[in-house]
Amino acid sequence: MQSPRKEVCPKPFGKDYGKLVVLWDGTVIPCCVDYNATLTLGNAWNEKVTDLWQGAAIDSLRQQHLSGGFPGVCVNCNECETEKTTKRFFFATPAGVKT
Fold first, then answer.
1. Taking the domains of the chain in order of start, what are their residue ranges?
2. What would the DSSP string read from start to end of 32-60?
3. Of 18, 15, 21, whose CA–CA distance to 34 is shortest?
């Protein structure tokens, strides 16, 4: 699904643009903008966070972003840095993840 968004994240959910959020119940989501956990990657109580960071679900999200197809929660996001926008926040690489 193509979104009205024109800018593509140059490195979605990667070294320069990447973060995971662990919610109170262990649910892991790829971004703090996803307030309703619509892009659930797994659960930190049941899975290693490093496995989730390198897993199929987040890889699929990366591919969608690179092809210009953004899931609903990503359509109006301006968190990634592009030629037209700059990130509003800086987040470090998740602990234990080698980049």
1. 1-87
2. TT-TT--S--EETTTS-HHHHHTSHHHHH
3. 21
